[in-house]
Amino acid sequence: MTDSVNRRPIRAVAFDLDGTLVDSAADLMHASNALLAELGRPPVDLPAVRSFIGDGAPKLVERVLAATGGIPAADEAARCLQRFLAIYEADPSAHSALYPGVAETLGGLAEAGLRLGVCTNKPMGATLRLLDDLGIAGRFAAVVGGDSYPTRKPSPEPVLGLLERLEVDPGETVFVGDNEHDVAAARAAGVARVLLVPYGYARVPLDGLPHDGILAGFADLPGRLSC
Question: Binding of Mg(2+): at which residues (predicted)?
């Protein structure tokens, strides 16, 4: 698959996870509310949790705590984060599901010989368990989590780390995500193109981001790789 006669062939596609491949908000809400119940705080609802997703578990927990009574002192906040991770990582897929067309499209891309990878701000343990539980772990040649490198998206570091593991250059790669951090990280990494899904957990309007296109749906992706 090629972009045009003037561009290098696309050899790899890198994906964000939450809001791009998987709708995971319900499981994040359940884990958040289990933590809040232990703290004697009120629960958060699904729209609130959707707005908290995208910056990794530390920021998610920080936002949950801020919305339900305030952020505690640093040592207690750290304990809350560890407790949240213990709850969430024990079963991160009970209420999560692949978005329509994801499984079939990934299969087609892999069969076409493209190298596929995941770059997410979710912790690696939960990421691998979720991919396995949802039956798509085998589609990816490399996976990078929010704790794989010192920085997370919007830093380009995890994207570049993923591409190194995939053994491809940025100019041979398309990045597919759902929010502003995906665009910023992928652009800074120098990938050939950045495509966005029309659903997901973006906190800013997609039209205002410097992307290369918004997919009609996930199944639209193969056709957008060759144009």
Answer: 16, 18, 178
Q: Tell me what the mean pLDDT of segment 107-111 comes to.
A: 96
Q: Are 118 and 156 in contact (CB under 8 A)?
A: no
Is 91 one of the annotated active-site residues of the chain? Answer: no
DSSP secondary structure, 36-100, as one string: HHHHT-----HHHHHHHTTS-HHHHHHHHHHHTT----HHHHHHHHHHHHHHHHH-TTTT-EEPT
Choosing from 16, 23, 27, 147, the catalytic residue is 16
> Is 18 known as a binding-site position?
yes
Mean pLDDT across 170-197? 98
- Tens-digit pLDDT profile for residues 92-108: 999 999 999 999 999 99
How far is it, in rounded angstroms, from Cα 44 to Cα 61?
11
| pLDDT one-digit tens code per residue, 65-84 | 999 999 999 999 999 999 99
Q: For the chain, which domains are there?
A: 12-24+96-225 (3.40.50.1000), 25-90 (1.10.150.240)
List the beta strands (DSSP E) in the chain: 12-15, 22-23, 97-98, 115-119, 142-144, 173-177, 193-196
212 known ligand binder: no
- Helix (H) / strand (E) element for 17: namely none
